[in-house]
């Protein structure tokens, strides 16, 4: 039997030893007439095609590779449970299904979910058969032409163009099962405090009514050395504890997390009923603080300059789904090798495995929501619900240092003059901070900010002298309006917040006979080098900026402005990119000349 694709554990921040991967071959059908529910396809109708989960039908790796609109699709898989799952509660998990999902087990509806980028799960125990095969059926409904749908870069036309790409319909992240006892750990929320050298842990439980003797054991270690442990009596569905870390953690000699030193503490949670182990979960955290002090972005209480790359999160053969965990790791490694210390995951709530590699290898991430394109009351509900789910899912990742709910007024196109849309952006800002008080929030990345912790600008100017003059001071930066869009909406004021150039560059360099576009274009290696230097040099010297985000990591479909090809091949040597970001352009040019003549 062929091993299923994407067979790594899908939830690395909350890991149980025993799990059942349901990726691989499922049967599949289109439902263009929307008749499946009325005809009760969930009760046993044979589906006429096969698909490889977790890849969407629009992708090559799905085995289907069709891009036409099919907004309702069905999946079925027959599953036999392992013997050790007997007498347990069985939880069925979906990493992401775009956009609405209904799930039946043996004909019983067990779950419904709305939101294309966030996970959901269901306790399916009562729907299971005691022996033999169990039928899992999923109905996914997308709304391909609905521009009020939080969709990110997924285009509402059949053929990709401009900055919009191939859509994803249905399952696109891992599906799996796990068995738990009736009493088990539902989730944990970990908040590091480097100033007090403590980790604050909130734990959430299910099935407490089964015992009055529950205790939670917490063991924290670093590289195998036990650092701290505690045992608390579980008295409610939610409990909280602060644990002092008794190890040296300052002056660069300790164990704080940063891109340069991505130190991680391991945590083992055990739920005990007297001495019986009911649940064991493994996790990790980083002791990391992101803050703004007197208008300066700080990492671990020290000024930190962010050097980010824009990463669209599209993959060869998989569309939004990486073909392998190794490719997610490779993207992180390539980003660091080029000299960047972070990535802005653009218009996508990325696979947790990517965030895991950023945590482990050391890469900052701006967590960004996939936006809609137009405004409506229905959009507001959808956006608010899914954005909260995304924050809760990713709260524990030390790599995430900034939240970005909106980009370039997507979903709020009239925000400059429409008070409702301004209130919506403000609500997202304050809602985000009400859930997570530890990270800065950018209200509307690029322009037309309301209240924002960092003011950001998008500018694809290619002339060095203009970039140098625009960003000489923070005050000039927020008045630049390079795209003809005000950086700050009238009525909101600049009060010394940090300014970052969060999109620039976008230089197209097409090698071979491919067709595509960029915001400017290079004709050969030397021209590409010169153009890169002309936009990067003034930005890294700009007195008005505390960081930048270059567009972009890879080519994506028709957009050919990556530093790498879509297949992750560097267009210039990685070390040359690194030296350019470090400001050593003359050496960089000499090496290029030598390489071209070798």
Structure description:
This protein is of the alpha+beta class. Helices cover 18% and strands 30% of the residues. The chain is built from 9 helices and 31 strands. The chain has a 7-stranded parallel β-sheet. It has a 6-stranded antiparallel β-sheet with strand order 3-2-4-10-7-8, with no helix packed on it. Strands 1-12-5-9 form a 4-stranded antiparallel β-sheet, with no helix packed on it. A hairpin with a 2-residue loop joins β21 and β22. The radius of gyration is 25 Å and the shape is globular. About 2% of the residues have low confidence.
> Helix- and strand-based class?
alpha+beta
Q: Could you describe the largest sheet, including whether it forms a barrel?
A: 7 strands, parallel
Range of strand content: 25-35%
Mean pLDDT: 94
Low-confidence stretches: 585-594
Strand arrangement in the largest pleated sheet: 26-25-24-23-31-28-27
User: What's the β-strand tally?
Assistant: 31
Rg over C-alpha atoms, rounded to the nearest angstrom: 25 Å
- How much helical structure, as a percent, in the residues? 10-25%
| Structure annotation, total helices | 9
User: Looking at the structure, what is the overall shape?
Assistant: globular
Q: Termini separation (Å)?
A: 49 Å
